[in-house]
Amino acid sequence: MDTKKTGALIAQVRRELGMTQRELAQRLSVSDRAVSKWERGAGFPDISLLEPLSQALGLTVTELLRGERGQAAMDDNELIREGAKLAMLRARSMIRRNLAGIILFAALAGFVLGPMGLWGRLQIQVTDIDRVVDAYVYTTAGERVGQTQIEVVGQWHQHRGKECWYEGRFAIPEVPKTCREDTKFLLSQGWDDYGNLEAVQIRLYTPGSFDIKTMKPAGYFAPSMEAFAVMTGEGKIIATDDYLARLMAMYPYVYRLDNVGITVWNE
């Protein structure tokens, strides 16, 4: 059982059938994120999903488990062994996650319980974000030329003062570097003394370095990350609607949004 091979097979057959990750997820009553994990080889479907997943893709359970088409059906003993391996992998994953949480709690306990650390955390509201957002591709001038889906998985931090920031995954298929597992998308912004929304500062982070060339260092984002506009280093605009694309086309002139009645913040 090879998660990479199985993930590649799921992605290949899904595309051949003309299905999006969202459509496949809806058929199986799972999240878009779950399908994305399978296809990247970062996880494996639950045992209970093997049969409905194979039916949705027109494959056999054996082909799914082995990650290859045209595989002869396993006998009962083989299926039992593969099922046991899968169950063991999931159990080990749960143990690792729980152990990591305990270690992290112990390491941060002193900081969290300290007066300044506790006060600082109380000032920040953290929202977990895990979604796939439909977006469009535009030319530098703001002309729509295609459609795409952006995987957004991370956390939005809102400080009670005048700062907010997002850290996590912002995977744009048209920008391969953003789709790498070791790449994090970082953005931060604040408000000026007049209550105007200042330009977002965007960076990509990979272990050991920051990258400000792949993406232009400015854009427009709603706190939910369901509405946004960014520009790639080559000038291609990725946005959720034409209005934001037109704003992004003004780059390097960035419109400082009034906090009242502006679409991007009107949630």
Describe this structure in words.
The structure is a single chain. The protein has 267 residues and is of the alpha+beta class. The protein folds into three domains: 3-73, lambda repressor-like DNA-binding domains (434 Repressor (Amino-terminal Domain)); 77-118; 125-265, no CATH class. Helices cover 37% and strands 28% of the residues. It contains eight helices and eleven strands. The chain has helices at residues 3-16, 21-28, 32-40, 50-57, 61-66, 76-113, 115-122, 242-248; strands at residues 124-138, 144-159, 163-171, 184-190, 196-197, 201-206, 209-211, 215-221, 228-232, 237-239, 257-258. The strands form two sheets. It has a nine-stranded antiparallel beta sheet with strand order 7-6-4-3-2-1-10-9-8. Strand 2 and strand 3 form a beta hairpin. The longest helix is centred in the middle third of the chain and has 38 residues, at 76-113. It is elongated.
